[in-house]
Amino acid sequence: MYNYIEATIHEIEFKVNGEETSMTIPANLTLVELLRQELRLTGTTEGCGVGVCGCCTVLIDNKVVASCLELAVNIDGKEVLTIEGLADTYQLSEFHPLQTSFREYEGFQCGYCTPGMLISSKALLDQNPDPSDEDIREFLSENICRCTGYDSIIMAVKSAAKEMNV
Ligand code: FES
Ligand code: FES
Question: How many angstroms separate the alpha carbon of residue 150 from the centre of ligand 2?
């Protein structure tokens, strides 16, 4: 059967990790597909594909978004941050303090949830530079980790917050 949605082509312009980009894409391409398949930004992982696990979290204009649910056409004129751009958001460091503290506190095991967890944690610290354990649990409640039990993630986020507040 002829796929009318796929046949609709859009030209979009956007920024990803600070770089201006323009592309011609089919209307039904999701943002996670654009990032991973078209731009080869494979740091963003895809788990459930239906907006439940949080693996695919990115920021669009500083808002937390599940990139598996977002159509890529919707980023036209917007700015996307993925895990590949996280370190550059902090004082031109090699690693963002969240990356350093996740390593230090073993805030990951298999690592599949980690890019989304780090991006969500960045969004949290942007809004709340000194979050309580409860604040962190609540903010990260849409990022599922099957490995860590979350305590090490909470310690890592608190440690990064402390470092960033010095
Ligand atoms: S892959 Fe997007 S929320 Fe699970
Ligand atoms: S580290 Fe394995 S799912 Fe979180």
Answer: 9
